[in-house]
Every structure is written in C-alpha cells, then in structure tokens.
Design brief:
The complex is a heterotrimer of chains A (520), B (336) and C (279). With 520 residues, chain A is an alpha+beta fold. Chain A contains 17 helices and 21 strands. Chain A has a seven-stranded mixed beta sheet, with helices on both faces. Chain A has a six-stranded mixed beta sheet with strand order 14-18-13-17-15-16. In chain A, strands 4-5-7-6 form a four-stranded antiparallel beta sheet, covered by helices on one side. In chain A, a hairpin with a 5-residue loop joins strand 4 and strand 5. The N terminus of chain A is likely disordered. The longest helix of chain B is centred in the middle third of the chain and has 38 residues. Chain C is mainly α. Chain C is built from twelve helices and no strands. The two termini of chain C are 20 Å apart. Classes of the chains: A alpha+beta (520), B mainly alpha (336), C mainly alpha (279). Chains in contact: A-B, A-C, B-C. At the A-B interface, helix 1, strand 10, helix 7 and helix 14 of A face helix 2, helix 5, helix 7 and helix 12 of B.
C-alpha cells in the first residue's frame, strides 16, 4: 500500500516542483526540422568517423580553420583562419587566425586551441589516423598564429583541415566534460548544441554571438526517422522541412521524386556528388576466373549503365567513367572514351576468348542491405544472366560485408565509396594503393610498383598542374587493370519545404551548413 | 501468498538460466569481427587486438560467460559498440516508450477483444458472430507492416487527422519525469505536449492492439462456447435461466481466467511486433533499438535488448500467475 | 464423409477458407504455366506501369509483371511456410512426445528449454537467430521454425501424457515393445488430430513471420519472387504505385487468412463437444 501512497504523493508534488516549466510551442517559422535516418554517432571531432549525421552537426556547431567556398566548392576560404601560407617544400602550413572569436562557453579562441584540437583528434580518432600521423609538429607562434609541420609534402592537407574531424574544440569545455564531451560539444559555430534524445532528436539553438553574424534560424531540430516511406510522408505533411540523402541510404525512392516535383510545397535541390558506386572484383585473388582480365572486361561490358541510371534511378544518378567522378578537378576527360560500353555480344566474345563458360561461373554477388542496394543488385544480376552468368545475390549487413572484403573472402561485390575529404587523393590512395589492399574500402589491388609509385607521387606533388597530370596518368593506369565496373554516382538530393531558403548543397563531403538558411 | 510467490520465482530460475545461455551464445554465432567494425578503416592490428581484449572476446568462452553473468548481476550489460555508452542506460531511456505503447495496446485490446468475444459466443453463428470472426481473423492474418502503412496513408496523409510518425510534435518538449510522454505532460501541466503525445500514440497503438484484440476475441468466444457445453451450464439452462444470463454469469467467469493466460502469452508476441511498428512509426523504443543494433552488429546491444524482451515476458508471466492466485484461491492452495 | 459435409454446411467460414486456399493454390500452380512473363526478366522501359489488360496488376520498379511475380512468389512463400512448419513439427513433436512419454528428468529438461524459448517474442528470437546465422532465406526459415517448435512440443507432450495412460499403451509397454515403436504407433498416430490443427495455424504464423523477416531484410534475397520480400522491396513506391506493394501484401493476408479459417474449423472438428454444440 505504501507504494501507492508514495506514487500519489509524487503525482501531487511533481507539478508543484516543476510549476512554470510549461514547454511552449516554438516559433515554427524560425525552427528548421531536418529528417535524419539515425542518431548521430561521435558528435565531436575527436571521435567522429565520417558518420554523416554527426559530421553535419559538427560542421554547424564547430568551425574549421578553412572551408570550401559555396556554391562551387572548388576553392578554399578562411574560417577561423584569415589567411595562410605554405612553405616551398609543401611541408609547413602557417595560419593567421581570426581575432576576437569566442567559443560558445565564452572562452577565447586562439592558437593554443588549434594545437589542442588537432593534437587531440590525432590521439583519439583512429579514422583519420593515416593522415593525421603526417603531422609532425604544431607550433603556437603567437596567440594569433599557428604553424603546422608535416613529415612529408601533402597538398590535400588543407582539404583535411576543412573536415569535421579537424574542427576546433573549446579546450576549457573538453577539460570540464572529459569523456562526456561528445554529449556536450562546445565549438565556435553558428549553432549551440542544446540536447539529444535517443532515437528521437538532436536540438541546436542559434549562437547569437557567431563571428560571421547570428544565424537567421533560431533553432534546428534533427528528427530521427528510420523508415524511408515515413520520411516522405512526413515531408509531405509538413512534419519535417528537410530530407536529404545520407550515405548508403536513399532518402526517398527515385520514383517518388517525380511525384514530389509536382508538389508545389516542396523544392528539390540536386547537385553532383563525388560518391562512386561500383561492382568490384577481389583484385588480390591470384586464382579463379576473375584473375583473367578478359573475364573482368566481359563483366564491365555486360552492364547496361544507361538502363541502370534511367531505369532504376530515374535520372537521380550520373555515369562514372573511372576512378574519379567527372566533377573532380583531376578528372581525365579521356576516361569517357576508355570507359566500357554496354555490349553483351562483346562480353560473350571476351568470355569465349578467355575460354570461360559463363554457365560454369556460379557467382555470389555481395551487396549491402536496403531497397536501394537490392535494386542495384537485382539489375546487375539480370545483366549478368543475359550473358549466361548465374549470380546469387547476398545482401549482407554493412559490418559483415566489410569483414568479408578486408579478409578477401569474395569474388565480386557491390560497394561504394564516399570521399571524406575534397581531393582526388581520397579516392585514389585509399582505393588503389597496394599496401593498403587488406584494409577497408579498397579495391584490394595486387602489388604493382609502377602504379604505387605513381599514386604516391601524385599525392605528394605540390604544383597543382603537375599533380593533375599525374592523376590523369593514374586514372589511365587503373582503367587498364579493370579493377571493377564503375556503376554510377548518386546525385546529392535535398528535399525541402518550399518556404525554406538559402540552403546550398555541399558536394564533398555532402554535409550542409545551416548558417545561411531561413524560413519564409 | 508469500510462499506461493517465492515458489513461482524459484521455478523461474532454470528457465532464466537457459535464457541467459541462449542470449549469450546468440552473439557468439555471428560471423564478422566487431573490433574491425568499430575502429573503421585504417585501424592497425594492435588496435583491433586491444579492442578485442576490451570487449572480452579474447578469453575462453566459459570465462566470457562467467563475466557476462557477473556483470548482469550488477546490472551491467556492457557498452554499445556504436555509441560507446552503457547499454543498460541506453535501454532504460528507451524502455518507457515501448512500455507506454505496449501497455496501452494491451488495454485497448482488452476493451475491444473481450466484449466482442462474449457477444459472439452469446449468439454463435449470428451475423455479428460471423462478421466479428471474419474481421478478427483478418486482424490476426494481417502483416503488421502492411496495416501500419495503410493506416499512415489513410489517417495521416489523405485525411491529415493524425501525425505520420514520432512520439511528440518536434516543436514541443516535455520534461522527463517518468519517461512516459503522456504522463509527463499531465504531471508537469504541459497539456499541449500530453495531447500531442496522445495523438502520436493512436496509430502505432492501433497496429499493435489489432493483433491482440483479434486473438483475444477469438479465444474468449471459443472458450465460452466450450464452457457452455459443461454440465453446470446445461443444468443452469435446464433450470430455465435465460441463455444470455447463463453466458454472462457462468461462461464469462470461467473463460476470463484462461484469457489472462492468453494475454500474458500474446503480450510477448506483441512485443516482437513492436520491432516493426517502432521502425515504421519512428518510435524511440527498444524494438527499434534492437533492429538498428542488428544492422550495426552491435553485439552488446543485441544481447541486452533480447534479454530485456525475455525479462519482460517472464515478468508478465509472474504477474499472470499472481493474478491467477488472487482470482482463484484453488490454484494458490494447490501450488503454494 | 457425410459427417464432414454436414460439418462444412454448418461451418461456412471453413468453406470460405477452403475456397480461398483452392483459389490460391490453383493460381500458383496453373498461373506460371499460362503467364507470358518470367518473374525475374527486367523490362525497365515499362517500370511501375499501372494495371492494364496486359499487366493485370501492373508492373514493378523493374518492369516485371506483378501478377506473375505473385504467382511465382506464392510457390516460394507457401513452400517456405510448409517447410518451416515441417521443421518445427519434426523437432517439436519428437521432443514433446519424448518428454511426455518418458517423463522424469528428460521431461524437465526439455520443458524448461521449451519455456525458455517461449520466453522470447518469436520475432525477436527469429531476428536474433537470422542475424546470427547471416541473412538468407534458409536461415530465416530455420529461425522461424525454432520459434514455432515449442508449440508443437507442448501439444505433443500433452497428447503423449494423456494417451500413455491408456490401457492399450500400457499393455504395449508391459509387452516390452521398444519405445520408438510405441511412440510412433500409438502416441503419434492417436495424437495426430490436435497436431494437425496446430500445423494449420502454424502455417499462418510461419508465413507472417518469414514475411516480417523479409520486410526487415533478413529473409528471401532478390531477385527471388517471394511475397514478403516483394512487399518490402516495393513499399517505397507505395505513394506512386500502390499496387506493387499492396498486391503481394494482400496475397499474404489471404493465404494466412485461409489457413487460420481452416485451422479454426479443424479445431472445432476435433473437439467433439463443440462439433455438436454448434446449434
């Protein structure tokens, strides 16, 4: 009986305690609701592993030293740095820092904070270890100047500094919250982290003292909605303002985009991405039919690329001709001619030349889960069936497929990669450098001194034009080896309610900044 | 009564042990290395080994199990591989959402199911009986995801009466007191939030409740028809009592007890349905948490949520037992 | 036979169930023979066409005929259902009979395991198992079968218990007949009725559960036509082309409905009291 009495007392008492805490309906015209498929992971630079939701929130709560200039995203501009110089040998980067910037907790931003943040990420974030290990020293020249020395020339380093993992954190807040910093992130950015409810939402509020001026919105709510059809229904009913494509997921079915285009309440922003989706071979495997380049070529000619782009994606994806997307500054236009064309007859001929009976190939075609990958796999499977190859689709959870790939237990798999920084290096080095073959997200290239040297030289050459020529060569070399069939590059698509204004879709990485956004 | 409860709890020990073994071994069957997943590309062999050690995956299985059980006794379910947070806490923040939904669904199902079953049994093979039998069979046969989608389309998209998904309007917040959104809204006097929470509850509750209501209706009808065949009912009817009186006085009383068992059993099944319902309605409960964990191979979370589902069922069966004891002294005597 | 006809006349829902089942079985056996389409052939130019005379239920996102996929998918779905129930039946009945007939500690152990399995919501256990073994149709079937087996074990055990005290079984025991012969000849054969009821009802659950696993991406893999997987793959188009998702969904509903109708009526049939009471 006591339990009930206690409960009754609580019911009476609680309203008294919390009297006056009426949560008011927020001013909707200044609140932006963004639908995301899952909770963010690693809401701070020291722990972020390029997971899209967390990365985007970091870019809105924190600032980086430099950032890509909207809307072209081809040039870097200063953010927390006003300008910078690079030494002749390409190893020393000196940044002049912006004056008078304060973190959201009121402590001042200075060179010590830069040193603290980058060294912290280097120590704690395994995702960026390979690149951050290049940092040999970070020197505080003065409170307004910082000098970063690399152990080798690395021109893509500036692009790395524009990434969420390189954002500058408040040293005081890190001290205060310790390992709870990810739950209490504090930066200099336009929005202040207010709180997160598991599987429900993340709430950001405007930072009125932001150094570029207060944002026009007063609040951003990231709403977690895992199901794609539910996201669409919410967008149509006005329950969310923005739905965007995220990583592996298609936010909204391609077929639905046509219907949404006719909806006057909804605007669709599209832009090319640098994401590549491919059918890849286990290039490190010395035996088996795919060790023969003719068999690999046959597969690349069996795929109806245009049918895939128009049929499955309804124009929401673009053709990929080689290891780089057409919008990369290092894209070699010659790749358009070198790329395989859909030609089932040629595919069959190549198989015959290789003395491979297609019906003897009993393939397991590995793919990720979800309707989008299911559709791509179904399409590719039918293409292979047309040249007589029987493939069984194995849709596998993300971690399991990664494990299969890194251990080399597959022949062909559908895969994709999203460059995590805006530089050809992100595709080429990770994808094709043979010493990395047994790590994740590579093409498992066999040892090849010529190609490896070329890749490393391209990575380290400072002169932009010389570098571009090297990447041209790299692309042609890779194409000769037929490491896979480049299937498509999904466009970045953001669906927004018609009253949302000022959003520019960022292409690499596809993370949006909401500082400039407003609602009518 | 106390000894009855204690005996029932003791009887549960072997079952719980087997449940633990099942939950523990489930995750060891999974192919793929969680350490590789967690560290992401670029991790070195040393880092992976260190993480395996940290996750307790490098010890003999027997020791792993001992550690697991010992941790459980302290309420420690390990740490989520994805978020790095303690699983116990993660589950506790999501548990109220699932309980809120499932308890409401049980109440709705009882309110709908029992009267329907009774009315059908009073007039077997009447139009009402036929209609309700068909409707309830459709209810049992309908895939939950299909029903959810149809309801979303009708009531949220076309009619616009109810919200599509979520637990509360994004523009409202409520202070967490109990974790139950409606209750918290009322307690803190935030009636706008409470009302919004009620509106958000309607569709997912309907989906969950439909299955249980239909099962219950069918069950009550059938047991009542069975009871009607018993001698004492025949006697009562022979004495000239009206059929409906007999049904309500004798039939209902005798079929309610087994109905409690069915509710208890089907409650577990309904919790399973919560995985689908929570995913479609973006409901932040443990069903969806479990599904996300499976997609991410988040070992400790899969274990933790599976265990919690089993615990909820065991708890329900204890409550059912107790209700039995309270409602029927004969059982208490026999088992105590 | 006459008794059966009288029973069916009184029990119209059983007739409805039979009619649906016969129609579905007819559709999936004859349909594929007469359909001009193959279920996996892509025709991307005609994707998501609305129902026409050429495509009675329209086409899906790859231009495949939905009607044809339902006909082929029904073969897979029903075969899956029957397969799952068969596995569950064999496992459950074997252990249930053994527990009921032998008694003692084997009974205790078996029934505790049964209790433990029943303590998991079926879908939770099936998902956990399917995830553990890896997502494939076989594993999904095995997982669902494991969750269904305890129900069979319980029914079989109670049948064995009630029959094993019957004089003819006791006589067989005293004659020294080997246990397996007694189990098979008397207990299994005499307990078949309730097991049949259980099997029919379990067919419905098996199809629903496998479809749910398919919906969550843990069941049949494309391009195999299977109702649950087809609903799941096409759900995203429900606003632009409702038929592609709703048609296989309705097929699942109808199949499960027919099994439940028949199972219900079988339960009445094997329950003599209720069979006569229906006045």
């Amino acid at each position: 009986m006591n339990i009930w009495k206690g409960f009754a007392a609580a019911v009476v008492a609680v309203p008294l305690i919390s009297a006056g805490t009426y949560a008011q309906a927020q001013d909707r015209s200044k609140t932006l609701v963004v639908a995301v498929p899952s909770d963010p992971v690693g809401l701070e630079p020291g722990g972020n592993k390029a997971e899209p939701v967390g990365s985007e929130i970091i870019l809105n709560v924190f600032d980086t030293l430099v950032a890509w200039t909207s809307p072209e995203f081809k040039q870097l501009e200063g953010r927390l740095a006003t300008n910078w110089t690079i030494s002749a040998d390409g190893k020393e980067f000196t940044f002049k820092l912006r004056d008078g910037v304060k973190f959201q907790d009121g402590t001042p931003f200075d060179a010590a904070a830069v040193k603290f943040s980058l060294e912290r990420t280097k120590a704690t974030n395994s995702y960026v270890k390979a690149t951050f290990d290049l940092i040999r020293d970070i020197a505080v020249v003065s409170p307004a100047e910082v000098k970063i020395t690399l152990s080798a020339a690395y021109p893509a380093f500036l692009s790395i500094l524009a990434q969420p993992q390189s954002a500058i954190v408040s040293p005081a807040a890190v001290q205060k919250f310790g390992d709870k910093f990810a739950a209490n992130p504090v930066g200099t950015g336009p929005f202040v982290f207010k709180g997160a409810q598991a599987d429900t939402n993340v709430v950001l509020e405007a930072n009125p003292g932001y150094f570029r001026g207060a944002p026009k919105l007063s609040k951003i709510i990231y709403r977690v909605i895992p199901d794609a059809s539910t996201r669409r229904l919410e967008l149509e009913s006005g329950g969310v303002d923005i739905v965007q494509q995220q990583g592996q997921l298609s936010a909204i079915a391609a077929e639905d985009i046509e219907a949404l285009k006719k909806n006057k309440d909804i605007k669709i922003l599209e832009t090319s991405s640098q994401i590549i989706r491919q059918l890849e071979f286990n290039n490190n495997k010395k035996d088996g039919p795919f060790a023969n380049v003719k068999v690999r070529q046959a597969i690349t000619h069996a795929i109806d690329y245009d049918g895939l782009l128009n049929g499955v994606f309804g124009g929401t994806a673009e053709r990929v001709y080689g290891p780089l997307t057409t919008n990369s500054w290092a894209f070699n236009p010659k790749m358009k001619e070198l790329a395989p064309k859909y030609d089932p007859a040629l595919a069959k001929k190549l198989l015959a030349e290789a003395k491979v009976d297609p019906s003897s190939l009993d393939l397991k075609l590995y793919s990720f889960q979800g309707p989008l990958w299911g559709a791509v796999a179904t399409f590719v499977q039918a293409n292979l069936a047309d040249i007589g190859i029987n493939a069984t689709i194995q849709q596998t959870e993300f971690p399991a497929l990664r494990a299969l790939q890194t251990s080399g237990q597959f022949d062909v798999a559908l895969d994709g990669r999203q460059p995590w920084y805006n530089d050809p290096d992100a595709h080429i080095t990770i994808g094709y450098l043979s010493p990395l073959a047994n790590t994740a997200m590579t093409f498992r290239m066999p040892e090849d001194k010529v190609l490896d040297d070329l890749i490393l030289k391209a990575q380290q050459t400072s002169d932009l034009e010389a570098r571009k020529q090297l990447y041209f060569q790299v692309q042609e070399e890779i194409a000769k080896k037929v490491p896979g069939a480049y299937l498509f590059s999904p466009k970045l698509i953001v669906f927004e309610r018609a009253n949302v204004e000022g959003l520019v879709v960022n292409s690499a990485p596809p993370l949006n900044e909401y500082w400039s956004v407003s609602k009518k | 009564m106390a000894s009855f409860i204690i005996r029932r709890l003791i009887a549960l020990i072997p079952v719980m042990c087997i449940v633990l073994v099942i939950v523990f071994s489930l995750v060891r069957l999974i192919p793929g290395d969680p350490a590789v997943t967690l560290l992401g590309p670029g991790a070195t062999k040393e880092q992976i080994d260190a993480l395996r050690a940290q996750l307790d995956l490098d010890q003999p299985v027997v020791l792993q199990f001992a550690n697991y059980v010992f941790g459980l006794l302290k309420g420690d379910l390990g740490f989520s591989l994805k978020s790095g947070l303690p699983v116990t806490g993660e589950i506790l923040t999501r548990l109220p959402a699932t309980i809120e939904l499932s308890v409401l669904a049980v109440i709705v199902a009882i309110i709908l199911g029992i009267p329907i079953g009774v009315l059908s049994a009073v007039r077997p093979n009447s139009i009402f009986d036929h209609v309700t039998r068909v409707v309830s069979l459709v209810g049992v046969s309908m895939p939950a995801f299909l029903l959810a989608l149809i309801l979303q389309l009708i009531f949220a998209t076309y009619l616009g009466w109810l919200p599509v998904s979520g637990r509360m309007s994004s523009f409202l917040t409520v202070e967490t007191v109990t974790g139950f959104a409606v209750l918290d809204g009322i307690i803190t006097g935030n009636f706008a939030a409470a009302w919004s929470a009620v509106q958000h509850l309607i569709l997912p509750t309907a989906v969950l409740a439909s299955f249980l209501a239909a099962t219950l209706g069918r069950f009550v009808r059938n047991t009542m028809l069975d009871v009607m065949g018993e001698d004492f009912i025949r006697t009562a009817r022979a004495k000239g009592l009206r059929r409906s009186n007999v049904v309500l006085n004798h039939g209902l009383r005798n079929s309610l007890l087994p109905a409690i068992t069915v509710i208890g059993l089907k409650f577990a099944e309904m919790l399973g349905g919560a995985i689908l319902t929570e995913t479609i309605f973006a409901w932040p409960g443990i069903g969806r948490y479990m599904f996300e964990a499976i997609k991410n191979r988040d070992y400790p979370v899969i274990q933790g949520t599976t265990l919690v589902f089993a615990l909820m069922f065991v708890l329900t069966s204890i409550i059912v037992d107790l209700l039995y004891g309270v409602l029927d002294p004969r059982i208490r005597r026999k088992m105590g | 036979m006459l008794e059966l006809l009288i029973f069916l006349r009184r029990n119209k829902l059983a007739v409805v169930g039979l009619v649906i089942l016969v129609a579905l079985v007819g559709l999936i056996t004859i349909g594929p023979l007469v359909s001009p389409y193959t279920p996996t052939k892509l025709d991307i130019l005609h994707k998501l066409d609305a129902p026409t005379l050429a495509h009675w239920l329209g086409t899906d996102a790859f231009g495949r005929d939905v009607m044809t996929r339902i006909m082929y998918g029904g073969r897979a779905t029903l075969a899956i259902g029957v397969g799952v129930v068969a596995i569950a039946f064999v496992i459950g009945v074997f252990f249930g009979m053994l527990a009921g007939f032998v008694g003692g500690w084997p009974d205790s152990i078996i029934m505790r395991i049964v209790d433990a399995i029943l303590a998991f919501p079926a879908l939770v256990l099936a998902i956990a198992l399917a995830a553990a073994f890896g997502p494939s149709l076989q594993n999904a079937m095995l997982a669902v079968a494991i969750t269904l087996a305890p129900q069979f074990a319980r029914v079989a055990r109670s049948q064995a218990l009630s029959i094993s005290v019957k004089p003819y079984v006791e006589a067989a025991v005293s004659l020294g007949l080997p246990t397996h012969r007694i189990l098979l000849r008397y207990i299994f054969v005499n307990g078949l009725g309730p097991l049949l009821v259980q099997s029919t009802l379990a067919l419905g659950s098996a199809i629903l559960q496998t479809a749910s696993l398919g919906f969550l991406g843990l069941g049949a893999q494309p391009p195999l036509a299977e109702w649950g997987a087809d609903v799941s793959a096409n759900l995203q188009f429900v606003r632009s082309a409702a038929w592609v998702a709703l048609a296989p969904g309705m097929a699942i509903l109808l199949a499960v409905l027919s099994f439940n109708l028949i199972g219900d009526s079988l339960a009445d049939w094997f329950n003599p009291r209720r069979r006569n009471e229906l006045d």
